[in-house]
Amino acid sequence: MSEIHLIATAPMGLEAVVAREVRDLGYDRVTVENGRVHFIADELAIARANLWLRTADRVLVVMGQFEARTFDELFEGTKALPWPDWIPEHAEFPVEGRSHKSQLSSVPACQGIVKKAIVESMKQRYHTEWFGETGPRYVIEIALLNDVATLTLDTTGAGLHKRGYRKLVTEAPLKETMAAALVLLSRWQPERPLYDPFCGSGTIPIEAAMIGWNLAPGLRRSFAAEAWPVVPEDLWSEAREEAYDLVRDDIPLEIAGSDIDSAAIDVALAAAKAAGLAKELSLKVLPVAKAQPRGDYGCVITNPPYGERLGDRGEVEKVIRQLGGMASQLPTWSFFILNPNKQIEHYMGRTASKKRKLFNGRIECHLYQYFASGGLYGWRKEKQDNPGT
């Protein structure tokens, strides 16, 4: 297999989480920059990364990178790249683009130059003047930053957050990738209980269950590169077989969620059923004031309403105070709260153990982390002292 330069794109603030996922797949030649995790791998990694990365947005093949301050430099640099090695004669190859802090600031003009250069490159290989573009889809991106052009191919297609289990959505759903990131950042273990008292369409409980059972998030969907000859079908079969072999569905899970919105719970139940996890999750219509998580050393991981988009700000303050009351009744539990409201600590009645800036879409938030006094250490000690529990 050949050596390929890949990029896993990442939401702002989650680059380190995505990098950890890439390394967990066995790829250790990793570098991180804003919004992107670069790694060197092979064709099989295209399949494995798409199937397994829970917190990345998509997986790109880097075709080349070079300085481009003029249209001539952009054209010649693009034309010199090995496009025919990847793109067959009848493929569809649209060009997308973006430019930041670069002399070539007209994105449509750059897209046109790149398209023309790729056509010229392919003419030389395929000895034809016309490309019908009726075959597999290869989305090309030209990204200009500080006068450096990066040309990529998108192997993913629809974003990685589209797992395939959500057919309906609520008014302001949390992306699956962000929900998975919250679970991973909490360091939750599947032997511990987990509760989301503002579960909405159930994304956090579902993603937690998938992590608990080591279910690859991409198993129920297809990807753009599955139609590419350069990534043959047997590599996708190998990656999927590996993923099925690694499922640990014999682990009992204690994952629950509730929400005051009955329509949201209906959506959550449908999504859990589609994900094959309906029997593993307890999802109920319940206000946060009446929520009573069971067990010890659990994690509350939640994305309460923001007020700017949902409900009234006064109501938001009320329910966060109720969440603080829940925390006071659960001394062995840790709480992880994603929210843009800068008054969260005031409403919770105590300062967070740790805060981390994240972006939910374009909304700047903080992940407020409240660690239990015993924390993970307390849970592990209890397991050692009482191995049967």
Explain this structure.
The protein is of the alpha/beta class. The chain has 2 domains: 4-154, VC0802-like (2-Layer Sandwich); 176-385, Rossmann fold (3-Layer(aba) Sandwich). Helix content is 34%, strand content 22%. It has 12 helices and 14 strands. It has helices at residues 15-24, 43-52, 71-79, 83-86, 107-126, 176-186, 203-212, 233-245, 262-274, 313-329, 344-348, 375-385, and strands at 4-9, 30-33, 36-41, 58-67, 95-100, 139-145, 148-154, 194-196, 255-259, 281-285, 299-302, 334-339, 354-360, 363-370. The chain has a 7-stranded mixed beta sheet with strand order 2-3-1-4-7-6-5. α2 crosses α8 (233-245) and α3 (71-79) packs parallel to α5. The chain starts with a strand and ends with a helix. The mean pLDDT is 93.
Tally of alpha and pi helices: 12
Shape: elongated
Instruction: Briefly note the CATH topology name of the largest domain.
Output: Rossmann fold
The CATH superfamily of the largest domain is identified as Vaccinia Virus protein VP39
Structural class: alpha/beta
User: What's the arrangement of strands in the largest beta sheet?
Assistant: 2-3-1-4-7-6-5
Sequence of secondary-structure elements: EHEEHEHHEHEEHEHHEHEEHEHEEH
Please summarize the sheet with the most strands.
7 strands, mixed
Total strands: the figure is 14
The CATH class of the largest domain turns out to be Alpha Beta
The CATH architecture assignment of the largest domain turns out to be: 3-Layer(aba) Sandwich
Strand content: 15-25%
Oligomer: single chain
Integer average pLDDT: 93
Distance between the termini: 47 Å
